[in-house]
């Protein structure tokens, strides 16, 4: 069975609702007020089956829209999901303002197929019908509804004349409609919310993509509320699943009618992120009454959602009617929008349709739109666009989760799209992250440059610690590790324990020097706080004074030795022990004077004063008069 959604469009009183009823037997004017006033206010729904040539059944879901200019916003909530339009023009009135406005909307929203229906054919003579047909043909010239792709069918809902021709035209047109993607991630923009006695909360909408299953847990965007699908109805019949392209009603638990409203979207939990910034390609209608200025306040409609928003034109202070531009839409509240979604812009006041277009990026990177990226996003080539999304993340890469969130593609689709670029090594996969090879190379070069800089500034230090080097890069730890490993593997870097250095660089110790270093370390470690004079230690070494000085500098850099005053150098372990003693002393007394300190540590005054000053600097103690307070 093939399911498609047929929308009506056209001026008020041109016979849209009557036509749907003549075809399906269902009165789509469901509200009491609609029946009383005889006009359509909100969306109406109906359905019918038709046999297709191959024996397959064609299921048509109808969305009947209001024609009145005051209810265009309701029309916009319904038009988003349609596959095929019936543009209804009454033969006795021909083209009227909402014929034009609805037709503009259909084109901006990207509807690809349709049939023009000249209704009320019974109300005019053959000659008038011919004149109207000519007028309409001219009106449709160069559009998706122009002959020979789309027929013009005269009908009378009153007499039934032409209805069989219309059904045939529907079957022909429906055969050309491409099925929506039921494998893609589920998205159901809500167009109605109500309670049903004995059932509870029900939402309806046209399933944009994916499949809904009974008992599934889903999330309401943008509120994040979790709901469970208690029941699924497709075109009024209970079902275990609903697939993309079907009119779908979901009976939900976990939310009341007060938690849900038209414009929200139902999707799998934690898959998407609502956005306030949307980069688009926008076209200002030739019929727009005035130029569109950047930063203008507008009404923004996408799928079933509508909101006041600000439009920021890229690189233009304004555009003239008929012109196109990249733009950023700034929404007051986050909404779930994805690339490829179409939108309509209506003037803030008076409210008329002035523009529309397609969403290129609903997860823009920077404060301003990036025209290079948008140009690619506009190409409609999924592999190219996905690559551009990876490239723009540079060495940080794009995780699978984020790729799903940004595109709405499933993990399988993303895996398939990236197969060739991975094979060609245009990109690499590191765990869950896809990264552009060029960006990895750039990061490698940057690390090597940093290392060169480090060595020239620190000639006496063997290398930089891995952690310190990582902190200088803005990439994720996994990415840094992978790149570092690769550099070591390629022998562009050496790793010595926790240190990283350029090959052949760093401090290379001769045996004598290494032994001297050990001796110095030992001498200070054994001395505790009663350290020997540095010149005495140096005098006892096998190496010359210059080298010995170099070794001491090295030990100071590595914080093995610590300079407490110009004269005094201690081993770090001795100072660590001193800290412990001071902390333990605090339990006995908050205050310590020089005498007590000498007694505690066993050092002479010569050492006690510099050590206490050192402790003051380290904020372990604080001088109070002649004594110290232990902090
Ligand atoms: N004579 C005639 N009247 C029609 C036909 N279709 C609709 N009408 C009448 O036109 C009026 C408006 O029809 P309706 O379907 O509500 O128009 P909508 O506003 O486009 O939905 C109603 O009074 C209908 O009875 C038709 O084919 N022939
Ligand atoms: Mg109507």
Provide an overview of this structure.
This protein is of the alpha+beta class and 631 residues long. It is 34% helix and 29% strand. The protein is built from 20 helices and 35 strands. Strands 7, 8, 9, 11, 12, 13, 15 and 16 form an 8-stranded antiparallel β-sheet that branches. A 6-stranded mixed β-sheet has the order 2-3-1-4-5-6, sandwiched between helices. A hairpin with a 2-residue loop joins β12 and β13. The chain is elongated. The N and C termini lie far apart (80 Å). The mean pLDDT is 92. Bound molecules: guanosine-5'-diphosphate (GDP) and magnesium ion (MG). Residues 16-17, 40 line the site of magnesium ion (MG).
Spatial shape: elongated
Number of strands: 35
Ligand kinds: guanosine-5'-diphosphate, magnesium ion
* Major sheet characteristics: 8 strands, antiparallel
Distance between the termini: 80 Å
Catalogue the unreliable spans.
none
Summing up helix and strand content along with how strands pair, one would put the structural category as alpha+beta
In quaternary terms, these chains amount to single chain
Strand fraction band?
25-35%
Radius of gyration: 37 Å
Helix tally equals 20
**Proportion of helical residues:** 25-40%
List key phrases describing it.
single chain, 631 residues, alpha+beta, eight-stranded antiparallel sheet, six-stranded mixed sheet, 35 strands, elongated, binds guanosine-5'-diphosphate, binds magnesium ion
Give the topology:
Layout: E1 2-9, H1 16-24, H2 32-37, E2 44-51, E3 57-64, H3 72-79, E4 84-90, H4 97-109, E5 113-119, H5 126-140, E6 152-154, H6 163-176, E7 188-189, E8 192-196, E9 200-206, E10 211-213, E11 217-221, E12 225-234, E13 237-239, E14 241-243, E15 247-253, E16 265-267, E17 275-284, E18 292-293, E19 296-302, E20 305-313, E21 318-319, E22 324-335, E23 342-347, E24 353-361, H7 371-377, H8 382-391, E25 398-399, H9 400-407, H10 411-417, H11 419-423, E26 427-430, E27 433-436, H12 437-457, E28 464-465, H13 466-471, H14 477-489, E29 494-496, E30 499-501, H15 511-527, H16 534-539, H17 545-557, E31 561-563, E32 569-571, H18 572-588, E33 591-592, H19 594-601, H20 605-617, E34 621-624, E35 627-630
Helix pairs in contact: 3-4, 15-17
This protein binds guanosine-5'-diphosphate and magnesium ion.
